[in-house]
Amino acid sequence: MNQPLVKVEALKKYFPVRSNRLFETKKQWVKAVDGIDLMIQSGETIGLVGESGCGKTTLVNVLLRLEDSTEGSIFFDGLDITRVSQKMLRDKVRKNIQIVFQDPFWSLNPRMLVRNVIGEPLSVHQKLSGLTLSEKVENLLDMVGLPKDSLYKYPHEFSGGQRQRIAIARALALEPKLVVLDEPTSSIDILSQAQILDLLQQLKEKLGLTYILISHDLSVVHYLSDRIIVMYLGKIVEQGPAEAIFSEPVHPYTQALFNAIPSLSMRNLSELRTIEGNVPSAINPPTGCRFHTRCPRAMPVCSEIEPKAVFVDQDHQAACHLLKP
Amino acid sequence: MTDQKKQSYFEIKDLSVGFRTFEGIKPVLNIEGLTINRGETYGLVGESGAGKTVLALTILGLLPKPAGMILNGSILFDGVDLLKQTDKQMAEIYRGKRLAMIFQDPMSTLNPVFTVGQQIQRVITRQEGLKGKICLKRSLELLDLVKLPDTSNLIDKYPHELSGGQRQRIIIAIALSCGAEFLIADEPTRNLDVTIQAGILKLIDELQRDFKMSVLFIGNNVSLVNIFCKNAGILYRGKLVEEGLSNCVVQNPLHPYTQTLISAIPRSKSEKLKFSKTVIKPEAENGCPYYSRCTIGKEDCFAHVPMLREFPTGSPTESLNTETISVQKAACFYAGETI
Fold first, then answer.
1. Which site in A21, A157, B15, B209 is 20 to 30 Å from B27, CA atoms measured?
2. CA gap A122, B306 in Å, rounded
3. How much is the pTM?
């Protein structure tokens, strides 16, 4: 196997918590990402799945180095990006990792013309301006399926789906290798969603992109992803090929998560299962397996020993005591 | 049909609502008829801008005035026309008491500067005149009802200390505090995680059964409406384009718009997504509202507005109760043709 595009090793990100008491000396930490190893091959689409508060967004923020990691390393194309200088980051890394944010109503500056929104990365990194910039932006608009006369319009003149297209065009302006999609369709309608998903799929094939897709709409994840990573409280509980995970999830958490999705084939509410309780606090996560407090199949050992990731199949692994290697 | 007419409990007739703009009055809603029987759930599906929330606000008499105008029609609730009630009557008799609503966004519905307890008690005091200890006891009962743990502690908390699911439960508790019989749930699980969504839906379902409430469920997710509601209606640009038992509508969609909506749901990688490619067709001003996006529309769609027509439905599922005569309606001249 050739060198992976991204390799994450024992990555940790802790946030300090301010104590409520005045003279409290013991410092507490929110363990948002707590020891994650993963590899992303070039050309893959990784689906990152989990409840809110499980650390998906923090993981991605650290990956983009919007946050500095507490421990561990991230290799992007062989370069450890957790330790490089800001200058190096800007010259080498940033243009290769781009992000499409969740809400296109907030992620586009309302006072900038579409030309400047999409053209900003180009003028910063490639020092383009004037006619060359306009031309490049026109090509990008064409690529995401927007008319050329959008160049001199403001973001408010577009619908949600169109704005998301602008955000995609901006992310692709520098021809990045890795694009992070943070809930790209959660705030737009189902019909625009279908169009955006189709566009993303086409662009991936055309430009050879690698995607990291965060979404809590599992049907979107199912549609786009090649591989799926399921996170719970800052740890990976299961990862493997998308088809394998959707057809035979092995971790109880993944199973529970999938049973909670309403699908067209369900007839009534009793087919929908919920997971009892809330996600425990990430300040003092449960000992042993972190899911044992809500797991329907918890055993005594689960609260004591933390399960190690076990390969259930080639490339499909899960961390649960129920599984035997 | 005669049976249904007798017991019709909530009925919208020829309702049309418009908004005043600089270019004159823009029609927003145009519903020929919508009936919800006592104790039934009705799911309304549509894209944003279809008029779902405007309908909810019209029912509650909360339409922004003077921008919003009721042009025509009536909303009969238990024999009374809600549109003819004065604001005072609406506030004292109906809204919050017999009619209740769960709003879309649990993050912004609660007031951040009051504790949860204060917000529940305020409603109880206003609607039922309870005060002091009795009021507190009642609010604790309500929190129990929506299955929140540790209620005596929770009641003194502020909304920001609670999770999205907990907040939505509190909103449900407030909505039901005065024994509502008709509940409007406007996308109650939007922005919530799937696991929490399932819990909230089950809670509403249970309460609906316990209190024999009628529920108007508004959503933009067809599969959600399918499992939650008995009947479903598809709203497009303020018009009902299809109506029927939700199982029938989902499995055998008649209107091209419904078909598009359902095929746009991503399933798996192997199944390609179908969605309407942008058809460049002029807007049909006197014709079918869906004409400009429809792939099978012909000349008569451009010239005439299709009315809701009844279609016989062969029961597509065995689990359907055979006693209920299912009538599926669609507003399209070519309903039933596949896109």
1. A157
2. 51
3. 0.84
Which residues from A are below 8 Å from B317, CB to CB? 267
- If you count residue pairs, one on A and one on B, with CB atoms under 8 Å apart, how many are there? 109
Q: How confident is the model at residue A159 (pLDDT cuts 50, 70, 90)?
A: confident
Answer whether B268 touches A (CB < 8 Å): yes
Residue A143: helix, strand or coil by DSSP?
helix
Q: Residue B268 is nearest to which of A51, A52, A223, comparing CB atoms?
A: A223
Q: What band does A212 get if pLDDT is binned at 50, 70 and 90?
A: very high
Q: How high does pLDDT run on average in chain A?
A: 87
Residue B314's pLDDT is what? 53
Query: For position A176, what pLDDT does the model report?
Result: 92
Contacts of B163 in chain A (CB under 8 A): 278
Contacts of B223 in chain A (CB under 8 A): 262-264, 266
Task: Please tell me which of the candidates A52, A246, A267 has its beta carbon nearest to residue B227.
Answer: A267
Distances (CA, A) of B128 to B69, B93, B111, B117, B207: 31, 11, 21, 16, 20
Q: Would an 8 Å CB–CB cutoff place B93 in contact with chain A? A: no
* pLDDT of B195 over the 50 cut: yes
What is the dihedral sign for C-alpha A104, A107, A111, A116?
Answer: negative
Interface membership of B206 toward A (CB under 8 Å): no
The SS3 call for residue A15 is strand
Inter-chain residue contact B250 with A264, CB threshold 8 Å:
yes
Task: Assign B224 a pLDDT band (cuts: 50, 70, 90).
Answer: confident
Q: List pLDDT tens digits, range A20-75.
A: 666 666 678 888 898 899 999 999 999 999 888 888 889 999 998 888 899 999 99
